[in-house]
Design brief:
Elements: H1 2-5, H2 10-13, H3 18-27, E1 31-32, E2 49-56, E3 64-72, E4 75-79, H4 82-87, E5 92-95, E6 100-104, E7 109-113, E8 118-122, H5 126-149, H6 172-179, H7 194-213, H8 226-233, H9 298-305, E9 308-310, E10 318-320, H10 335-339, E11 357-361, H11 362-368, H12 374-380, H13 385-398, E12 410-412, E13 419-424, E14 429-437, E15 442-449, E16 453-464, E17 469-474, E18 477-481, E19 486-490, E20 494-498, E21 506-517, E22 523-529, E23 541-548, E24 553-560, E25 564-567, E26 574-578, H14 594-599, H15 604-607, H16 619-625, H17 629-652, E27 662-664, E28 670-672, H18 676-681
Helix pairs in contact: 12-13, 16-17
Family: Belongs to the OSBP family.
Subunit structure: Homodimer. Interacts with RRAS. Interacts (phosphorylated form) with VAPA. Interacts with OSBPL6.
Protein name: Oxysterol-binding protein
Length: 694
C-alpha cells in the first residue's frame, strides 16, 4: 500500500528486504516524542545545551535561517547569535515541557508545537541532530516533572531564575559558561524558616496571578477569552461598529505570497512559522468613534434582518431561529488517542467520531461564504472601478466571519456525488454545489443572481502539528459582474485551529489574498490577514490596499475579519461591512450564525424538490442535528462503507466517477454545466438516476 502511494517501482522494491523498507518508512515519517508518564518521577537536572540550528523563517518569508539556541531547564531561547542571547535580545522563547515534540529522522527535522506557534527546526549534522534530540527529551521530561510538582507555576517564569532579573533571560555568567561548553550548575543553599517559606509562596502566587492577567505579555497557553469577547463584539444594530485598534502605525502592504510551499519535507512552510519581532511589524492605527456610515448599505441590511422567523421549521419566508437540539458534550472524547499517530499528516483520511462534527457539511460551508452577498449587489451598482474592488475585497473577507465561533467542530466530509442547493429569493441568489472528487477531496459550487455570478472549486491540504491544525485551501474563487464585464478572481488564506487537544480552541486566519480583474488591468487589490503575535493582544486584524495599474494606492482597507471592514483614512474612514448579530444561545448550538442555522433546514415543500443526493437528506448529519449521537455514528459509518463499496466497484470495472452538474474546464478547474436548475424545473428529480449515497 505504501509502495503504491509513493509510486515505487517493482524492480526497486525487489532489491529491498521488508526490514529495510520498514526502516526507511520509519525514518521518513514523523515520530512523536512521548512525555512524562505516571505522574511525578525523579528526573535528574539536565545539562544545558547551546548551538546553532536552522529555523523556518517568519511568515511571509520563505526558507530557513540560522539562529542560536540556548536550552536551560526545559526553556528553549533563541536569537540571532550568542551575543544577543547574552545581552537578552531574544527573538523568542519556547517552553519545551508544554510543547508537543515531533522529529523526522531522515530529514533531521524537529517540530515543536507550542499552541500559539509551530516551530520548525532543522539540523544539518546527524551527530548534532541526535545530540539535540537527546537533550530536548531530557529537558522536556525535567520540565514536565517540574510542572507536575508546581502546577500553579507552569509559565515561562522559571522558579530557578531570581525574581529581580528578567525571567526569560539567563545571566551573562551562565551564557559565558555555555559558550565555553562548560555545564551550567546552580549551587545554592537555603535555610529558611517555615514562616518565611509560606510568605514567599504567597507572594509568588500573587505574582503569578498578576502575570496571568497580563495577556499582552504572552499568549503561550491561554486562548482568547472568546465568551467575553463575544459580548463585547456583537453588534446590537443600534450603533456603528467602532474598530478596536492598537497604538502604533501600520506600514505598507506585504509583498505577494502566491508561492510559499518551498520546503519538501514541510508542506506548509510559510503558514506554519511563528512570528518574530522585526522592524517591519506594524499595527492598525487608532481611529476615533465618529466613523462615517453614509456609504453603508443600510437598506439591504434592514431588508435582511426583517426576514420572518419561526422555531425549527416553516416556509421559505419564515426560517428557523435555532436547531432542534444543542451540540453534544465532547469532553469524554480523547483526541490524543485519535491524532497521536498522525503528526504532520493529512487528516482528511483520518476517521473522527461524529461528536466532533457540526450538523453541516463542506458544501454548505461554501454556501456560507454568500452570507453577505449584498456586498456583491452593491459592487454591481457601483460605477467607480476602484470602489467596486473595495466591495469585492470586503466580500472576500466577510466569508471568514462565521468561523470565529466555530473552532469547536468540523463539518461533515461530503461523499462523492453528494450535492447541495440553496435557493434564496430573499437574498436574490440560487446556489448549487457538488462533491466532484473524493481523493483528493474537491468541492465545486456555483451561484447566480441578477447582479453577479459566483463559482469556485476548493481543494484542501491540512496538517496536524500536535496542538494545532493548519488548513490550506488550494484553488481560486471567481466573481463575475455582468453589468461591467468584470471577472474577479482570488485565492484564500491559511486557517489554523489552536488548542486541538486541550484548553479553549480558537481559530485564526493568516496570509494574503490577491484579487485581480482578469478583464481589466485598471486596478488590483491585496488583503493581508495578519498572524497574531504573542506579545500583542491585538488579533484578527486585516489590512489591504486597492491600487491602480501603476501600483499607486487609491483606497486603503482595514478592520477585523470577525467584526467589520473600513476604507479610507482615520478619523473619517467609512464602515462598509460589519458582522451580523449572533442569534440567542449560539454557544449551545455549535456557534452557528443565523444564516448557518438555516442551511440544513428542511421543510416539506423544499424536500419534494430536492434530488436524493442533497446534503439535507443525509441521515447521519440530520440525526446529529436532532441530538441522536449514537444513531448518527452508526449511520456515518454505514455511509462511509457504502462509499468504499462504490469506489471498489468503479475500480474493478476500470471506471471513474463522472460528476452530474459540473465539468472540467481547460484550466483543470470544475465549473457548472448549467443543467441543475433546468433539470430541477423540468422534469424534476423524482426519477433522477443516481447512486444510493445513504
Amino acid at each position: 500500500k505504501i509502495a503504491k502511494e509513493r509510486e515505487w517501482r517493482p524492480t526497486f522494491l525487489s532489491h529491498l528486504s521488508c526490514s529495510c523498507v520498514l526502516n526507511w518508512i520509519i525514518q521518513d515519517s514523523w515520530e512523536i516524542i512521548e512525555g512524562l508518564r505516571g505522574g511525578l518521577s525523579n528526573v535528574q537536572e539536565p545539562e544545558n545545551q547551546a548551538g546553532y540550528m536552522l529555523k523556518k523563517r517568519k511568515w511571509p518569508m520563505k526558507g530557513w535561517h540560522k539562529r542560536f539556541f540556548y536550552l536551560d531547564k526545559g526553556i528553549l531561547k533563541y536569537a540571532k547569535c550568542a551575543a544577543d542571547v547574552e545581552k537578552g535580545k531574544l527573538h523568542g522563547c519556547i517552553d519545551v515541557g508544554l510543547s508537543v515534540m515531533a522529529i523526522k529522522k531522515k530529514a533531521k527535522c524537529i517540530d515543536l508545537d507550542a499552541e500559539e506557534n509551530i516551530y520548525h527546526l532543522k539540523i544539518k549534522s546527524q551527530e548534532l541532530f541526535d545530540e539535540w534530540v537527546s537533550k530536548l527529551r531530557h529537558h522536556r521530561l525535567y520540565r514536565q516533572n517540574e510542572i507536575a510538582m508546581f502546577p500553579h507555576e507552569k509559565t515561562l517564569f522559571h522558579p530557578h531564575y531570581p525574581l529581580t532579573s528578567s525571567p526569560t533571560i539567563p545571566d551573562s555568567q551562565s551564557i559565558r559558561k555555555m559558550l565555553c561548553l562548560q555545564p551550567f550548575t546552580a549551587q545554592c543553599s537555603l535555610s529558611l524558616s517555615l514562616s518565611e517559606l509560606s510568605v514567599c509562596e504567597a507572594q509568588l502566587l500573587e505574582l503569578n496571578h498578576l502575570l496571568r492577567s497580563m495577556e499582552v505579555l504572552h499568549r503561550t497557553y491561554s486562548a482568547p477569552a472568546i465568551n467575553a469577547l463575544q459580548k463585547q463584539d456583537s453588534c446590537d444594530g443600534s450603533r456603528p461598529l467602532v474598530h478596536q485598534a492598537s497604538n502604533e502605525s501600520r506600514a505598507s502592504i506585504t509583498e505577494s505570497l502566491s508561492e510559499f510551499f518551498d520546503a519538501q519535507e514541510v508542506l506548509l512552510s510559510a503558514s506554519s512559522s511563528e512570528n518574530e519581532p522585526s522592524e517591519d511589524d506594524s499595527y492598525i492605527s487608532d481611529i476615533s468613534d465618529n466613523v462615517s456610515m453614509e456609504n453603508f448599505s443600510n437598506e439591504v441590511e434592514n431588508e435582511r434582518l426583517n426576514t420572518g422567523c419561526v422555531e425549527n421549521g416553516g416556509s421559505q419566508e419564515q426560517r428557523r431561529c435555532c436547531l432542534p437540539s444543542p451540540s453534544p458534550n465532547t469532553s469524554n472524547i480523547s483526541l490524543w488517542n485519535i491524532l497521536k499517530n498522525n503528526i504532520g499528516k493529512d487528516l482528511s483520511k483520518v476517521a473522527m467520531p461524529v461528536q466532533l462534527n457540526e450538523p453541516l457539511n463542506t458544501l454548505q460551508r461554501l454556501c456560507e461564504e454568500l452570507e453577505y452577498s449584498e456586498l456583491l449587489d452593491k459592487a454591481a451598482h457601483t460605477q467607480d472601478p476602484f470602489e467596486r474592488m473595495v466591495y469585492i475585497a470586503t466580500f472576500a473577507v466577510s466569508g471568514y466571519a462565521s468561523s470565529y465561533y466555530r473552532a469547536g467542530g468540523k463539518p461533515f466530509n461530503p461523499v462523492l456525488g453528494e450535492t447541495y442547493e440553496c435557493d434564496r429569493p430573499d437574498k436574490g441568489f440560487c446556489f448549487v454545489a457538488e462533491q466532484v472528487s473524493h481523493h483528493p477531496p474537491i468541492s465545486a459550487c456555483h451561484a447566480e443572481s441578477k447582479n453577479f455570478i459566483f463559482w469556485q472549486d476548493v481543494r484542501w491540504r491540512n496538517k496536524f502539528w500536535g496542538k494545532s491544525m493548519e488548513i490550506v485551501p488550494v484553488g481560486k474563487t471567481h466573481v463575475v459582474l455582468p453589468g461591467f464585464g468584470d471577472h474577479y478572481e482570488w485565492n484564500k488564506v491559511t486557517s489554523c485551529i489552536h488548542n486541538i487537544l486541550s484548553g479553549q480552541r480558537w481559530i485564526e486566519h493568516y496570509g494574503e489574498i490577491s484579487i485581480k480583474n482578469s478583464n481589466s488591468e485598471k486596478c488590483q487589490c491585496k488583503v493581508t490577514f495578519i498572524k497574531a503575535k504573542y506579545w500583542s493582544s491585538s488579533m484578527n486584524e486585516v489590512e489591504g490596499a486597492v491600487t491602480d495599474h501603476k501600483g499607486k494606492v487609491v483606497h486603503k482597507l482595514f478592520g477585523k475579519w470577525h467584526e467589520g471592514m473600513y476604507y479610507g483614512s482615520p478619523p473619517s474612514a467609512t464602515c462598509i461591512w460589519r458582522m451580523n448579530p449572533m442569534p440567542p444561545d449560539y454557544e449551545q448550538y455549535y456557534g452557528f450564525t443565523k444564516f448557518a442555522l438555516e442551511l440544513n433546514e428542511l421543510d416539506p415543500l423544499t424536500k419534494a424538490l430536492l434530488p436524493p443526493t442533497d446534503s439535507r437528506l443525509r441521515l447521519d448529519q440530520r440525526l446529529l442535528e436532532e441530538g441522536n449521537v449514537e444513531s448518527a455514528e452508526v449511520q456515518k459509518q454505514r455511509i462511509e462503507q457504502l462509499q468504499r463499496e462504490r469506489r471498489r466497484v468503479l475500480e474493478d470495472n476500470h471506471m471513474t466517477h463522472q460528476p452530474r452538474f459540473f465539468q472540467k474546464s481547460r484550466d483543470d478547474t470544475w465549473v457548472s454545466n448549467n443543467t441543475y436548475w433546468e433539470l430541477r424545473k423540468d422534469p424534476g428529480f423524482s426519477n433522477f438516476d443516481c447512486p444510493v449515497l445513504w
